[in-house]
């Protein structure tokens, strides 16, 4: 470091480069590298600064600091090493130096900057400086991100006094700064809150604006605490003519109104007035937002809002207004979806807008219009649209289709065959990056929707067989799902041999390990299936009836040596399904022929072909370093070699078929794969009863004490690994008995723990009533572009509100309510409510016997407490009376609300002008007078306070609920 | 509240960067870089809004205006009105224009200090404070006067200034 070796010299001061010089040299440093590169210029400058900043001359130091601040702010150089130097300049009598010090500090400090506490004293001095700009500098620093909770604690008293300063600029800035104080140090609310509330009524609009801004921010975190201030905000809403303030007040009301229905009723008229009369688009938009989000129970208001929003949507020349128009539509609650329908033409047209924001909003809105009646058509057209869009937007479209379809367990999907083939089409989209979602849907539908499985298997087969897809990294997860589906539901497959070939094709090596592992496991399942059905082809001995689809009905004979696979059954059901749509008709016809040939194609030769192919492809994996692959490959090869062992080296057709040991081996494996996999409830674990005497909540730390003495003898709890034997075939054979048991064990387990299993009936019901597929989802052009499809969309979305078609729909297996994903609203309700700030605010607003500032609960004679009472109370004592008719009278007397308000303020001012002690006495007296039940003056007072303001704005009976 | 105000050239060089949440310097540079990525991909004649939630986190919006060789960017959250922010950019640029008499990029490059003075009068700790460019100009002129005078701490000037500002 140059600076550390040589101290600053006079030369440095005389020939110091100014910030302008630095900027010039940076601008001329255009070379990418070498002595003239910007980074070198920067580091040289930093070296100079390190020297200069230690100068005793303030000007030299100030210029050095200014350069440093510039470098930090615009070139991202870390200057935390210089944190002390801004502090040196803060007390400077020269304003420029002071300002440079503050600028450097607020741009480069963080709340954890270690020297920050050293600034406290100077900040206090500057806050009380009579020079406006100096005090403003301190306030600016205190509301910058650099301010810390400690600073807020130490300076909140100073802030409080500035809040009622007579210097307008300081009053505005301190009002705005109070936000940061409150959030950093919630207890500062006790000192400064009531002055902030007073500032809502300041004659200076800028002060009001700043105060309203603060409340807008505060109410975003915890609106409930600010309900008692509703009258103040209401007055501003009615009287104020400043758009900036009105926007903020509307934002506050849109947060308060949902909490208090009477408030919503009260504000709906003024909001609509602004909506009608204002010429400022920003205010109009804010009114619309307030109506749509918080006043959606008022149909007239919503209608007016929609009408005004129409002007936004129709503004051809202003994309901003069109964008906000669409945004506004998307704020509408579901019950007002008619408004989206009304504007559908514009919405759909916006899908082709050159602005990607507008496209996106339009897409969201279109997806919202989807119903079960138009899902197929809209999805098909959107998918075609995705083909023409840029990759990013295309994927957004795909994502929207997927989430619309899977919403609430595929609620909108009636025709699962269609949906499954849509998933297949999506996978082939050239830019598709939604592999993860599609993977999940394929597997999930397989598990949940039994009737969709035949089509699922067909789609999976088409994906697997296409070698071109293997190279696309985004699709590998889809392929893995396809492989799983093919293996799991292989009995529905048209041609298992073809499947094995697809699963073992050479390009599979391009897939990641996780997918390849699934591939190999699927090969295993397919192989078992082939062997199994080969054996039973001759009807070699009917024993176990197997339901290939449900798979859950099986005889309990554990000695099952032979069985009959009901391939007829499976293929028959396929024939039943056939002919659903034109597109797949031909294929299906082909399939049905196949079903007759099933026996034919599983010849001994094809079996041998499969076995050879497996051995050839998987042998190299035995040495694979990926354990997942190695293990699964060895499993299959082990099984094959077990077969060969039984058979002897010579594999001959007759022997193979006759040998009962073969049959047993194969049957056992087939049984192992027999049981259907089902979806598992996310909270199944939680429903396991805790056995008596097991306490899960006890701390286990005392276990250490118990075990202390025995530690040495304690047996190692680490798992023991044994070297895997290469003799897999033997291991397999030894395992056979246990495999035979698996089925009965499963059944037994199911019997014992029925609760955690899916009900059998649900997955079997309606097996026969599988609906016919719809007409082919229209051949809406891959050929023709936007115009055509947009026209279609416009036409289609029209139907979405029409009467819903009733159509039998396959059963979707659902688990209990616990499975549903947490919705936004349920998440919202979890939001932390015990935020310290809102606690203090409520306390101060409700005057619940609080003690001000840090000195809690000392004496009740604390002046600031009395002060705060003084202003809060007269409002309620002055005009609230226990009888509501008196209230009414008061209102009538006041006539207009702001009149009654000014009356209130007089009372308040009066209270303030009085000495504080007297004030307290007065207050006590009044509340005594006003109350019949004066035994509990404090409680009564609290009640009145909340009621008083409410009574002013709404003549509804006072509600205690407001306080809660 | 306003989360950040950023002025950057159409080449991606930042000219003014003010963050109202604490962001370490490296992070600031990264945010600006990513923001530039968004801005430079926006064609001409489209809306002034862009999605930045991926960059600045949930509940953030952004509005920008493109003047000659500069982007003026305001990042804000749901407590601000989109169109009002657009107006605020207008106020900011108008003030700069009045302050520098036909502002150009060079004025902004070489007046780091003054840019911050102006911005601080309009946006204070993330809150909109002043929306009249004339008022801002008045305040900034007073600050500039003070900066040029030798001292602000002496008893005499302080009281003079104090009286002036009252």
From TrEMBL, chain A:
Family affiliation: Belongs to the adaptor complexes large subunit family.
GO cellular component: AP-3 adaptor complex; endosome membrane
Sequence ranges of Basic and acidic residues compositional bias: 761-770, 915-926
Ranges where the record places region Disordered: 756-784, 797-964
Name of the protein described by the UniProt record: Clathrin/coatomer adaptor adaptin-like N-terminal domain-containing protein
Coiled-coil segments: none
Membrane spanning residue stretches: none
Species of the source: Spirodela intermedia
Domain of life of the organism encoding this protein: Eukaryota
Clathrin/coatomer adaptor adaptin-like N-terminal domain: residues covered: 49-521
Record InterPro entries: AP3_complex_dsu, ARM-like, ARM-type_fold, Clathrin/coatomer_adapt-like_N
Automatic annotation (TrEMBL), chain B:
Pfam families listed in its UniProt record: Clat_adaptor_s
Organism: Spirodela intermedia (Intermediate duckweed)
SUPFAM superfamilies noted in UniProt: SNARE-like (SSF64356)
BP-aspect Gene Ontology terms: Golgi to vacuole transport; intracellular protein transport
InterPro entries linked to this entry: AP_complex_ssu (IPR016635), AP_mu_sigma_su (IPR022775), APS3 (IPR027155), Clathrin_sm-chain_CS (IPR000804), Longin-like_dom_sf (IPR011012)
GO cellular component: AP-3 adaptor complex; cytoplasmic vesicle membrane; Golgi apparatus
Keywords noted in UniProt: Cytoplasmic vesicle, Golgi apparatus, Membrane, Protein transport, Transport
Domain AP complex mu/sigma subunit: 1-145
Record bears the keyword Protein transport: yes
Signal peptide positions on this chain: none
Subcellular location(s) of the protein: Cytoplasmic vesicle membrane; Golgi apparatus
Keyword rRNA-binding: no
Family from the record: Belongs to the adaptor complexes small subunit family.
Membrane-topology annotation of the record: Peripheral membrane protein
Protein name: AP complex subunit sigma
């Amino acid at each position: 470091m140059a600076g550390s070796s040589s101290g600053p010299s006079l030369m440095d001061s005389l020939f110091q480069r100014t910030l302008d010089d630095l900027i010039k040299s940076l601008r001329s440093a255009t070379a990418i590298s070498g002595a003239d590169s910007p980074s070198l210029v920067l580091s040289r400058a930093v070296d100079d600064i390190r020297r200069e900043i230690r100068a005793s001359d303030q000007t030299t130091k100030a210029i050095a600091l200014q350069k440093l601040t510039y470098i930090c702010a615009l070139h991202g150089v870390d200057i935390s090493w210089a944190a002390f130097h801004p502090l040196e300049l803060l007390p400077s009598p020269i304003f420029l130096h002071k300002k440079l010090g503050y600028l450097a500090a607020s741009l480069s400090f963080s709340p954890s900057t270690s020297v920050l506490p050293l600034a406290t004293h100077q900040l206090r001095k500057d806050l009380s400086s009579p020079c406006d700009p100096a005090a403003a500098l301190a306030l600016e620093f205190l509301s910058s991100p650099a301010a810390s909770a400690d600073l807020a604690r130490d300076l909140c008293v100073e802030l409080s006094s500035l809040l009622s300063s007579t210097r307008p600029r300081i009053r505005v800035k301190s009002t705005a700064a109070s936000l940061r104080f409150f959030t950093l140090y919630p207890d500062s609310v006790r000192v400064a809150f009531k002055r902030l509330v007073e500032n809502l009524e300041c004659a200076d609009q800028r002060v009001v604006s700043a105060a309203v801004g603060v409340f807008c921010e505060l109410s975003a975190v915890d609106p409930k605490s600010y309900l008692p201030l509703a009258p103040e905000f209401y007055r501003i809403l009615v009287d104020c003519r400043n758009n900036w303030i009105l926007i903020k007040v509307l934002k506050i009301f849109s947060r308060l109104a949902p909490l208090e229905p009477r408030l919503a009723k009260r504000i709906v008229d003024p909001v609509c007035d602004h909506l009608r009369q204002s010429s400022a688009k920003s205010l109009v938009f804010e009114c619309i937002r307030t109506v749509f989000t918080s006043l959606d129970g008022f149909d007239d208001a919503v209608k007016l809002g929609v009408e005004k929003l129409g002007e936004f949507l129709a503004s051809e020349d202003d994309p901003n207004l069109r964008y906000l128009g669409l945004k506004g539509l998307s704020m509408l609650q579901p019950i007002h979806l008619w408004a989206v329908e009304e504007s559908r033409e514009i919405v759909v047209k916006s899908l082709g807008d050159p602005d990607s924001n507008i496209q996106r909003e339009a897409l969201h809105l279109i997806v919202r219009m989807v119903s079960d009646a138009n899902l197929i058509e809209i999805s098909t057209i959107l998918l075609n649209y995705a083909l023409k869009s840029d990759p990013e937007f295309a994927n957004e479209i795909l994502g929207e289709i997927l989430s619309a379809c899977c919403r609430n367990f595929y609620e909108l999907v009636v025709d699962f065959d269609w949906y499954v083939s849509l998933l297949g089409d999506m996978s082939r989209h050239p830019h598709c990056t939604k592999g993860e979602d599609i993977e999940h849907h394929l597997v999930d539908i397989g598990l949940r929707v039994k009737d969709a499985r035949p089509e699922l298997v067909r789609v999976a087969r088409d994906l697997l067989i296409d070698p071109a897809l293997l190279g696309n990294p985004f699709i590998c997860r889809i392929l893995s799902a396809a492989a799983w589906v093919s293996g799991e539901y292989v009995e529905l497959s048209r041609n298992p041999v073809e499947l094995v070939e697809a699963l073992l094709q050479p390009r599979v090596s391009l897939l990641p390990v996780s997918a390849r592992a699934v591939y190999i496991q699927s090969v295993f399942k397919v192989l078992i299936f082939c062997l199994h059905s080969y054996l039973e082809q001759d009807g070699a001995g009917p024993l176990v009836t197997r339901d290939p689809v449900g798979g859950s009905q099986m005889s309990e004979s554990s000695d099952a040596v032979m069985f009959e696979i009901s391939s007829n059954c499976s293929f028959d059901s396929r024939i039943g399904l056939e002919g659903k749509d034109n597109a797949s008709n031909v294929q299906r016809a082909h399939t049905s022929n196949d079903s007759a040939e099933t026996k034919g194609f599983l010849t001994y030769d094809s079996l041998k072909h499969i076995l050879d192919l497996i051995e050839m492809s998987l042998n190299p994996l035995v040495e694979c370093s990926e354990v997942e692959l190695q293990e699964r490959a060895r499993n299959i090869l082990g099984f094959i070699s077990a077969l060969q062992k039984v058979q002897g080296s010579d594999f001959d057709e007759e022997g193979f078929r006759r040998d009962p040991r073969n049959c047993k081996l194969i049957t056992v494996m087939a049984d192992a794969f027999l049981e259907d996999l089902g979806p598992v409830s996310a909270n199944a674990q939680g429903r396991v009863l805790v056995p008596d005497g097991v306490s899960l909540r006890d701390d286990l730390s005392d276990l250490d004490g118990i075990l202390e003495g025995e530690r040495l003898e304690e047996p190692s709890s680490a798992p023991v690994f044994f070297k895997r034997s290469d003799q897999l075939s033997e291991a397999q054979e030894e395992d056979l008995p246990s495999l035979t048991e698996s089925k009965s064990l499963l059944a037994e387990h199911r019997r014992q723990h029925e609760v955690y299993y899916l009900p059998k009936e649900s997955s079997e019901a309606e097996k026969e009533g599988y609906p016919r597929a719809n007409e082919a989802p229209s051949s809406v052009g891959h050929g023709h572009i936007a115009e055509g499809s947009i026209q279609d969309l416009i036409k289609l979305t029209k139907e979405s509100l029409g009467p819903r078609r009733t159509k039998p729909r396959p059963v979707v297996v659902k688990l209990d309510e616990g499975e549903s994903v947490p919705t936004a609203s349920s998440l919202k309700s979890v939001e932390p409510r015990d935020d310290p700030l809102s606690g203090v605010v409520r306390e101060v607003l409700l005057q619940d016997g609080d003690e001000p500032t840090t000195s809690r609960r000392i004496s009740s004679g604390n002046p600031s407490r009395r002060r705060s009472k003084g202003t809060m109370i007269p409002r309620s004592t002055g005009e609230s009376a226990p009888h509501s008719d008196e209230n009414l009278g008061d209102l009538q007397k006041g006539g207009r609300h702001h009149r009654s308000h000014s009356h209130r303020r007089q009372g308040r001012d009066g209270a303030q002008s009085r000495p504080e002690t007297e004030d307290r006495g007065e207050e006590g007296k009044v509340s005594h007078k006003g109350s019949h039940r004066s035994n509990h003056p404090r409680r009564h007072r609290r009640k009145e306070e909340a009621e008083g303001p409410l009574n002013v704005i709404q003549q509804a009976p006072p509600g205690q609920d407001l306080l809660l | 509240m306003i989360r950040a105000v950023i002025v950057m050239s159409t080449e991606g060089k930042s000219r003014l960067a003010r963050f109202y949440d604490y962001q370490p310097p490296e992070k600031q540079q990264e945010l600006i870089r990513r923001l530039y990525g968004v801005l430079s991909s926006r064609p001409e004649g489209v809306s002034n809004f862009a999605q930045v939630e991926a960059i600045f986190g949930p509940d953030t919006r952004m509005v920008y205006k493109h003047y000659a060789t500069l982007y003026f960017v305001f990042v804000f959250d749901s407590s601000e009105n989109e169109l009002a922010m657009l107006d605020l950019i207008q106020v900011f640029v108008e003030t700069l224009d009045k302050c520098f008499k036909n502002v150009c990029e060079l004025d902004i490059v070489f007046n780091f200090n003054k840019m911050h003075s102006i911005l601080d009068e309009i946006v204070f700790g993330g809150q909109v404070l002043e929306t009249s460019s004339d008022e801002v100009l008045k305040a900034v002129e007073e600050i500039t006067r003070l900066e040029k005078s030798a001292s602000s701490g002496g008893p005499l000037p302080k009281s003079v200034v104090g009286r002036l500002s009252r």
